[in-house]
Amino acid sequence: EEAAEVLEGHILTSLSKYTEHLILIGDHEQLRPKPNLYELQAISGRGYDLDISMFERLVTRSGLQVSRLLTQHRMRPEVSSLIRPVYPDLHDAPRVFTYTHVPGMATDVFFFDHDHKEGGEDADGDGRSKYNTWEAQYAVG
């Protein structure tokens, strides 16, 4: 799981007196933990701030040394250019320039808007897992 998305308690309870190193991998600028109660979130002002992960706090507040990915090998350049404002030092590996174009499309990246609502809840009923039947049918034709 993404380190920035894991609740701090889940990390701390997995550590024992024999733990010598803890390696957290993720991106503190993307996903955050999702406490189920509003009162546990930073926006509530109650001080619990469980939606700020231990990983994010260590990276942004403690001055710990971190390493950051500087060359990406998965996204085509048209996609990676969309996140350059957030990651200005990110570069594209040479191989991403060789990806074939999306068959049948005028461009490799496009957006469309619609007014078909999402639905669904996951097994826990917390409403975080969504689906959109219209989008699925549109995608498969």
From TrEMBL:
Signal peptide: none annotated. Gene3D superfamilies: P-loop containing nucleotide triphosphate hydrolases (3.40.50.300). Transmembrane segments: none annotated. One of its GO terms (cellular component) is nuclear RNA-directed RNA polymerase complex. GO terms for biological process: regulatory ncRNA-mediated heterochromatin formation. InterPro entries: DNA2/NAM7-like, P-loop_NTPase. This is RNA helicase. PANTHER family: DNA2/NAM7 HELICASE FAMILY, NFX1-TYPE ZINC FINGER-CONTAINING PROTEIN 1. It comes from the Eukaryota. It comes from Dunaliella tertiolecta (Green alga).
